[in-house]
Specification:
The protein starts with a strand and ends in a 7-residue tail after the last helix. A six-stranded mixed β-sheet has the order 8-13-12-9-10-11, with helices on both faces. By secondary structure, it is α/β, with parallel strands linked by helices. The longest helix has 25 residues, at 215-239. It folds into two domains: 2-102 and 291-305, 2-Layer Sandwich (Nucleotidyltransferase, domain 5), CATH 3.30.420; 111-286, Hexokinase, domain 1, CATH 3.40.367. It is built from eleven helices and 13 strands. It is globular, with a radius of gyration of 19 Å. Helix content is 36%, strand content 23%.
Length: 306
C-alpha cells in the first residue's frame, strides 16, 4: 500500500492506494485540531494495520527542490519526509505542491467531473492553467506531460476599480504587501466583508447571508468574483492557457451555485486589446472534491518519484 494525502490549511485528506489504484481507508481530518502534521498522521495511522511502502503527500506551500520537506503556508507546520519515514516506518515519501497535485488529477478527469463556464476554442496542444481559491490561492501549469508548480497566488493584487482600490488600501495598512491571496481566498472573502461592512464574519456565514439576500454579503461576493475573474484572466494571459483554465479549491466548490451567474467571466474576459484571445480560452470548474488526493496518487506513477 502507498500513502497519499492532500494537506491544506483547513483540512487534510489521507488515504491508502493499492496496486490497482483503488483508495482504501479514506479519512478527512481538521487541520486546526492538531499542533503539527506528525500528530495528525499518528492519529490516522492508529487504525492502519497494513505495511505502507512509500507514498506522496500534496502540501499547500512551496516544496524543497528535493521533494522531501515543506512549510505549510497557512499553518505553523513543517513536514520532513526523513523524520516521518523514521518515526512511522513508511518507506520512501515524496512531497508535491497541492496545486501541482490538482494538475496531475486534472490530466485524468472525466468530463462529468467539471462544469464548463466558457466553451472557448480548446487547443489540443495548449498549456492548461489550474488555479483556485481555498484557504489560500493555488496555481499550477500543465504543459504537455509536464506539471509545473507555481506560487502565482502570491503575486501582488491588482485592483480593478475604486472599491477594490479601497480594499487594497485597507489591506496595505494592515499587512504591507497585498497579495492576490489576501483577497481571493476564504480569508480573503472575510477580509472583503470586514472592510465593506466593518464586521468580522467567517466565510461560510458571509455566503449564508448572501443566500438570504443580505445586501452587504451579496456585494462582498460580487467583489470577490470580480477580483477572482480578473486574476484568473491575467494568469491565463501570462501562461497563454489555450488548453483551458480549470478552477478548483474549496471556496470554488462551495460557491459553484453562484459562480456561473457571477461577474467572474466578465472580469476574466475584460482584457482590452486581448479580450478576444482570452474569450477563446475554455474555462471549467472542477467538481471532484478529491481531485488533490487523486493527483497525489497519479503523481506516484511519475518517473521523478520512482
Amino acid at each position: 500500500m502507498k500513502l497519499i494525502g492532500d494537506i491544506g490549511g483547513t483540512k487534510v485528506l489521507l488515504a491508502l492506494v493499492d496496486a490497482s489504484g483503488a483508495f482504501r481507508q479514506r479519512c478527512r481530518l481538521a487541520s486546526a485540531e492538531f499542533a503539527n502534521f506528525d500528530a495528525l498522521l499518528a492519529a490516522y495511522l492508529h487504525d492502519v494495520e497494513v505495511t505502507i511502502e512509500g507514498g506522496c503527500l500534496a502540501v499547500a506551500g512551496p516544496v524543497a527542490d528535493d521533494g522531501r520537506s515543506a512549510k505549510i503556508t497557512n499553518l505553523p507546520w513543517r513536514i520532513d519526509c526523513t523524520a516521518l519515514e523514521a518515526r512511522f516506518r513508511l518507506g520512501r515519501l515524496w512531497l508535491i505542491n497541492d496545486f501541482a497535485a490538482v494538475a496531475h488529477g486534472i490530466t485524468q478527469l472525466m468530463p462529468e467531473q467539471t462544469i464548463r463556464l466558457q466553451p472557448g476554442e480548446p487547443g489540443a496542444q495548449g498549456v492548461r492553467l489550474v488555479l483556485g481559491a481555498g484557504t489560500g490561492l493555488g496555481m499550477a501549469i500543465i504543459d504537455g506531460q509536464r506539471v509545473l508548480a507555481s506560487e502565482g497566488g502570491h503575486v501582488g493584487f491588482a485592483p480593478q476599480d475604486e472599491l477594490q482600490w479601497r480594499i487594497w488600501q485597507a489591506l496595505h495598512a494592515e499587512y504591507g504587501r497585498v497579495t492576490a491571496e489576501r483577497v481571493i481566498s476564504g480569508p480573503g472573502l472575510a477580509n472583503i466583508h470586514r472592510i465593506l461592512a466593518d464586521e468580522s464574519l467567517d466565510p461560510a456565514d458571509i455566503v449564508a447571508r448572501s443566500r438570504q439576500n443580505d445586501a452587504v454579503a451579496r456585494r462582498t461576493l460580487e467583489v470577490f468574483f470580480s477580483a477572482y475573474g480578473a486574476f484568473a484572466g491575467d494568469m491565463a494571459l501570462a501562461t497563454l492557457a489555450r488548453g483551458g483554465v480549470f478552477l478548483a479549491g474549496g471556496v470554488t466548490v462551495h460557491l459553484l451555485s453562484e459562480l456561473p451567474a457571477s461577474g467572474f467571466l466578465s472580469a476574466f474576459n475584460a482584457k482590452a486589446e486581448h479580450a478576444e484571445l482570452v474569450r477563446r480560452m475554455p474555462v471549467s470548474a472542477v467538481i471532484d472534491p478529491e481531485i488533490g488526493l487523486r493527483g497525489a496518487a497519479a503523481a506516484l506513477t511519475h518517473s521523478a518519484f520512482s
